[in-house]
Design a protein that fits this description.
- This protein has 12 helices and 13 strands.
- By secondary structure, it is α/β, with parallel strands linked by helices.
- It is 39% helix and 15% strand.
- α2 packs parallel to α8 and α3 packs parallel to α4.
- The radius of gyration is 20 Å and the shape is globular.
- α4 links the parallel β2 and β3.
- Strands 1-9-8-5-4-2-3 form a 7-stranded mixed β-sheet, with helices on both faces. Strands 7-6-11 form a 3-stranded antiparallel β-sheet, with no helix packed on it.
- The relative contact order is 0.17.
- Bound molecules: pyridoxal-5'-phosphate.
Length: 370
């Protein structure tokens, strides 16, 4: 039985009756740019993240880029993880900053905060923790480091909408604590649009107003430009789709957690494989269910042969990307990030995965590593 890594057609089948009329209402309105659905989605996301502001934009990449542009002077250093999607560091670079990489915590794959503290220099302006695979970085530690050293925090929440972490006895949402939280609505994300889309959240009303200006060429008033921004809006059609899907996010994230728990239980006695540990303070949203395996290539070959979708996120760390050669990093410098690139593989964990499909994945993994 083939099992895809992600099945968006299966998801569409469950929401067709809600999403098609919502989309058609947006079409009937013919308000394709900044129609009412955009503001409604912004309110709903601000509610979910418990932030004062939510500002929609064209992609998760822009949701990182616009706040970094607002914060950075040329050459400012920004500390981040080398084990993430390229956009995290690409946005720093495109905003005129210099990415400074530190190694990851091997258990959670997230930024090692102690090493981040050691990397702070007088040129450091911000930290970009990435909530990789849907599990939050230890934000209480990131925020206290940032407060002690006077740094901004841009949370890369692209993979973590709805994720939360218990801090001092209370739940804190991804995006709630940072100076800005950046979300992606790329179709494969836990909350995915039917194209590109993104959202910035912040508690800072002035910064929120500035981000609103930056997404429309830096002007609050039409044809009046206080600073140079760009065109980075979320289409009304995408907002209409996302509003419908947002109502299902909690149930979808719960289904992902249930699949993850079943996998982790089924793999507990496998010697050659390490299931992804969840930090006890976190509620993981399993954007990816990513195991470590010393015989990764063998496992990938067995999964492929059985028609089971899998992927390696990410096969090359960012400090070794050719475009960053000028930053002067070398192989071996971030041993944990580099080991992760050799060992990780993500398995199907989408909400609509059926029980027989999940069992098929489990059986195939167990057979491959016997
Ligand atoms: C960690 C991370 N950061 C940033 C992005 C960029 O988001 P987008 O593809 O919407 O530009 C992504 C998504 O692909 C991501 O996974």
């Amino acid at each position: 039985m083939p099992v895809p890594l992600l099945d968006l057609k299966a998801q569409f089948a469950t929401i067709r009756d809600e999403v098609v009329p919502a989309l058609m209402a947006a079409v009937e309105s013919q308000q394709f740019i900044m129609g009412p659905a955009v503001g409604e989605l912004e309110c709903a996301v601000a509610g979910l993240c418990r932030t004062r502001e939510a500002i929609a934009c064209a992609s998760g990449t822009d949701a990182l880029l616009l706040p970094l542009k607002a914060m950075l002077a040329p050459g400012d250093e920004v500390i981040t993880s080398p084990f993430t999607f390229f956009a995290t560091a690409g946005a720093v670079w495109n905003a005129g900053g210099r990415p400074v990489f530190v190694d990851i915590d091997p258990a959670t794959f997230n930024l090692d905060v102690e090493q981040a503290g050691d990397a702070v220099t007088p040129r450091t302006r911000a930290i970009v923790p990435v909530h990789l695979y849907g599990q939050m970085a230890p934000m209480e530690r990131v925020m206290s480091l940032a407060a002690a050293r006077g740094l901004a925090v841009v949370e890369d929440c692209a993979q973590a909408i709805g994720a939360r972490r218990r801090i001092e006895g209370a739940w804190t949402m991804a995006g709630e604590l940072g100076t800005v939280g950046a979300f992606s609505f790329f179709p494969s994300k836990n909350l995915g649009a039917w194209g590109d889309g993104g959202m910035m959240v912040t508690q800072d009303a002035d910064l929120g107003a500035r981000l609103r200006r930056l997404r429309t060429h830096g002007g609050a008033k039409q044809y009046h430009h206080d600073e140079v921004g760009t065109n980075s809006r979320l289409d009304t059609l995408q907002a209409a789709v996302l509003k419908v899907k947002l109502a299902h996010l909690d149930a979808w994230n719960r289904a992902r957690r249930a699949h993850a728990a079943a996998y982790t239980e089924a793999f507990a006695d496998l010697d050659g494989l390490t299931p992804p540990p969840t930090d006890p303070a976190n509620e993981h949203t399993f954007h990816q269910y990513t195991v470590r395996c010393g015989r990764r290539d063998e496992l990938v070959a067995a999964l492929k042969a059985a028609g089971i979708g899998c992927a390696v996120y990410y096969p090359k760390p960012l400090h070794l990307q050719p475009c960053f050669a000028g930053l002067g990093y070398r192989a071996g410098q971030f041993a944990e990030a580099e080991r992760a690139t050799r060992e990780v593989v993500s398995l199907p964990v989408y909400p609509e995965l059926t029980r027989p499909q999940r069992d098929e994945v489990i059986d195939t993994v167990r057979r491959a590593l016997r």
